Amino acid sequence: MALWKSTGNGTLEGISHVADLDASKLTVTLSETLKPIPPPDTWQFGNIMTDHMVVAEFDPETGWSDPEIKPRAPLSLDPASSCVQYGTTVFEGMKAYVGPDGKPRLFRPDMNMARLARSAERMALPPFNTDQVLALIKQLIIVDRRWIPLLSEHSMYIRPTLMGTRMGLSVAASDHATLCIFLSPTGPYFRSGGKSISVLAVFDTVRAWPGGTGGHKVALNYSPGFLPLRTAQKQGYDQILWLLGDDMKVTEAGAMNIFIVVRRDDGDVDLFTPPLDGTILPGVTRDSVLALAEAHTAGEINLPGLQKTSRIHASERTFTMDDLSRWSSDGKLLEAFGAGTAVIITSIGKIGFKGEDIILPEHEGGLGPIANAFRTRILDIQEGKEVWKNWGVVVDGKTALTKTEV
Q1: PTM N6-(pyridoxal phosphate)lysine: at which residues (predicted)?
Q2: How confident is the model at residue 5 (pLDDT cuts 50, 70, 90)?
Q3: Which element (helix H / strand E) includes 89?
Q4: pTM value?
Q5: Which end of the chain has fewer CB within 10 Å, C or N?
Q6: The CATH number, out of the four listed (2.60.40.2550, 3.40.50.880, 3.30.470.10, 2.40.128.190), of the domain defined by the range 4-186
Q7: How do residues 338-352 score in pLDDT, each as one tens digit?
């Protein structure tokens, strides 16, 4: 069997030579019949797929195959594949928006690619060149760009997925893999009409633990939460607030990073989010909120709807359910919100814990002023209405077809 090791950006450095992923070798076969695009008001998150997908295969003897864009169809997997038997699947969640110039835009895709590579390494999957994966994503967007909705707060969701496809039941790393990239047009994640959501704090089941995979985007992080979520929904809550440890540290809200806003005695506000201790996913939106808060307080930008003199002291710090209860009782807990690619920013209005509810202040439209400022600014950057650093990456150009267009 060939051997390889990963270098800085995921490229292959073979002890015996194997081919790296190469987007310049992409072949494109277009679907004979394009699907009709359903009305946006019928969309639910992830329930509609576009016409095409990217597929590439890794074999330990030869390396990465030439990638293909082809009509979307089921994959062929052996039932003894590693991803089926042992959950060796990692993925990313990204979005493409159309800007005022009519061109698609990605939001900080370099962060997604770096996280995908880290997740693959954590699951001992074959490495890949992240620049080439991003190039393939851009090509797929160009092919299926008609699916990108033109409505505000609507986007094309992008799901690059890497699956271990080694056939066999021995408990070992997968030296075979399939990379599949597919697209799904989407509107708002929560169909709540802008209202805040409720969360149930859970302490008898955990999402992640020290030394586990909580800091990576791997498939097996998500399915164990389905049963607790069903239980919470039966009690009238929308999502889970995951707690950890005897002191019941707050970690994440559903599949979102969580932020809370606390009034300080000097009139400023603290913005807290749990630190990246290995149990917290390093979210792209999370990082963006922290960066924008720092820029606003430093006077580099003015967040929408906030006074320039409004100082937001953002920090990564541990806080517990006891802290939330105390801040709420003292009238200092002003806002709580979840942050993630799918939701962008969503307000949390109620936190259930041991049969009692912490009720946060109500705000017109659901979002409080701090959460709304972040959501508005991030969405403006994503939709190309504002430019901030290099966060918005324009997808431009045409595909070079090297197979017959059908």
Answers
A1: 217
A2: low
A3: strand 89-91
A4: 0.93
A5: N
A6: 3.30.470.10
A7: 999 999 999 999 999
